[in-house]
Every structure is written in structure tokens, then in C-alpha cells.
Amino acid sequence: MNIILIGFMGAGKSEIGRRLAKELKCNFLDTDELIEKSDGRKIADIFKEEGEDFFRGLETEVLGTLQDYENFVLATGGGIVLKEENVALLKSMGRVVLLFAEPEVIYARVKSKTHRPLLQVADPEAEIRKILSYRDPFYIKAADFKVDTSKLSPDEVVKGILEWLK
Ligand code: S3P
After folding, report:
1. Mean pLDDT score of the chain
2. Looking at residue 140, what is its pLDDT?
3. Separation CA 43–CA 39 (nearest Å)
4. Ligand 1 centroid from CA 153, angstroms
5. 22 C-alpha to center of ligand 1: Å?
6. 10-22, pLDDT tens digit by residue?
7. Nearest atom of ligand 1 to the alpha carbon of 110
8. Four-residue CA torsion sign, 61, 28, 114, 12
9. How far is CA 104 from CA 16, 115, 147, in A?
10. Ligand 1 atom at minimum distance from 7 CA
11. I need a labelling partner for 159 at 20 to 30 A (CA). Which of 18, 26, 50, 133 fits?
């Protein structure tokens, strides 16, 4: 069985994904890491040099390479659900879990980080609200299960997902 984690930047996909994979004794994969490995550039540089559309194409390619694998937890980039083709691929691969959080919680988690090109703007908190309100319906449509991580510890989030999987 595969578990796919979707959600906005800072929702906890990588942290929760690693812990969940450990609990389930399976591999942890991350689309951003796989893209950086195969392209040889950092995500921020791909965005800068090629633009967002090109990056979205790489996300689709990476999902294509995972279709024959089994037994992994996959953390995905926050914008992966924007392409319908990606959502279909994700759903065919496994059970899709949405991690979400209040915008102010997301801001607190991401504000000291500089590797996310979409948030390198004058007012990142306003940008988070803006992008989130556009993306929410995409996340909700793609998800089989949703967890609000705003007030939960990573252990509690993992526990909630494991309960749901039973
Ligand atoms: C993006 C999220 C990032 C990364 C890229 C674009 C987005 O991944 O894929 O910077 O569009 O939300 P994380 O969600 O892991 O930060």
C-alpha cells in the first residue's frame, strides 16, 4: 500500500511522511527531492531558470516514474494538485491524505526558510492566504482523508493517520 501526503507548504508533509514511513516500515519518498536528484538543480533554481510551468511538468514526470512501485509514503510539493493529470496519478497510486493548517501557523513554520520560491515576496503571510484560498478546492477534491495539523504534534498527526488506515 502507498500513502500520498498532499497539502500546502509548511503543512508538515516531509516531517509527517518520514515518521509515518518509519511506523509503517516502508520507504519515504519526496517529489521535490526526486526532482532535484534527477534534474541536478535545486527547486528554487529550476523555478528561477525555467519557470513554474516547467517545474509542474517535472512533477508529472516524477509521478509517472513511481507508478510501478509499492509500499512507500510519498510527500508531494504543495502545488502538485493543480494539474488534474497529477491528481489522477496520485489517486491511482494510493490513499491520499491532506495535511492542512491555519495560514498563521503555516507562516510561523515557513518564515525563517528561504528555499520556497513562491514565498520570496514582500508579504509572505498575505501570499500564503492568497495561494491557499485558490488551492483549497483542489486539495479537498484530491483528498481521501484530511488532518488539521495546526494544533497537533507530529506524533498526534501520525497517530490520526494510522487510526484511519486501520
Ligand atoms: C510548491 C511547494 C514546494 C515546492 C515548490 C512549489 C508549491 O514544496 O514543490 O517550491 O507550489 O506550493 P513543499 O510543499 O514541500 O514546500
Report:
1. 96
2. 97
3. 9
4. 22
5. 23
6. 999 999 999 999 9
7. 16
8. positive
9. 19, 19, 17
10. 14
11. 133
